[in-house]
Structures are given as C-alpha cells and as structure tokens.
Design a protein that fits this description.
Length: about 190
Amino acid sequence: MSYDSVLKDTRARMEKAVAHTQEMLKGIRTSTATSALVDNIRVDYYGTPTPISQMAQVSVPEPRVLVVKPFDMSVMKEIEKALQKSDLGISPENDGKVIRLTMPALSGDQRKKYAAKAKDLCEEGRITLRNLRRDANKEADALQKKSEITEDDNKALHEEIQSLLKEFEKSVGDIQDKKTTDIMEI
C-alpha cells in the first residue's frame, strides 16, 4: 500500500457505496411508475430467491401502470405472491397473461413515509462512507507506523480522505434531495 493507492482504493469504495445507495432508492415509490420498483423484489423460483427482472419482462405502458410479463407462465402465481408481500402497497391484477400494478396516487402521509424511508437509506449510505473513511485513516496510520510515509504525508492523507468523504456525502445529499422531490411531487 502507498499514499496514492490508499486514496484510489478509498475513492473506488466510496463510489460503490454511493451507487449502492442510489440502487436502493430506486425501490422507493414516487408518483410515477418505474420498472426499478420491482428490481429488489425476489421470487422463490425452484427454491432460489430470484429477482423479478430475471424472470419477467417489466414495462411501463402508462405513467401509473407497471406490467410484469413472466417468461415462464408457470411462475405467475409466485410472482404475484411476491408482489403482494412486498412493501409497494399495490395489489397486483393477474389476467392470466400479465400482472398489472396500477399505482394509486400517493396520499400526503404516504409521501412523508416514503420520504422518511429515503432519508433513512441515505443516512445508511453516509454511515458506510464514514466507516470507509475510518478504515482508510487506519491504513494511513499503518503506513506511517511501518515508516512507508512520513508524519506530514500521513496528515495530508487524512485531510485528502476527509475531503473525499465530504465530496461523497454531498453526492448522497444531492441524491436524497432529488428522490425526496420526486416523492413529494404530485
């Protein structure tokens, strides 16, 4: 490990943490339908929890309608059960060929609940970023202890790690603001 490799590794890990937070936020409902709502829902497919996107075609024919068309019609009931158990709060309509999810307009209370959920997920992302900062600072201290970097370099590395944290925390904040705006939009 070196000064530059600690920074490069920390940046890569923080980018992954932000991407994961963004991915988790896709599953939170807004006022319009999106296929990402069902991305995190798993269906028991021959004993294996499988994402719906791997078992069916998911489309959005209208702004408030999501259509799930299974590749294998024998799993229609399992997909329907998984959608009912999910926290989407939408009752699936099965016509034998496709499953329709018609999204009702969100009430004010629902919007607040989903906005709070988005805030919690973003806070988890920030906590992950802080944990990555702590780990990177430990690596920097270990490098100084092994005399691979000087005390001044260690201090500078700590400062650069801190500025990386600020950059990525701002990114998570921007993502949260956008998602909250989408949720509260009528």
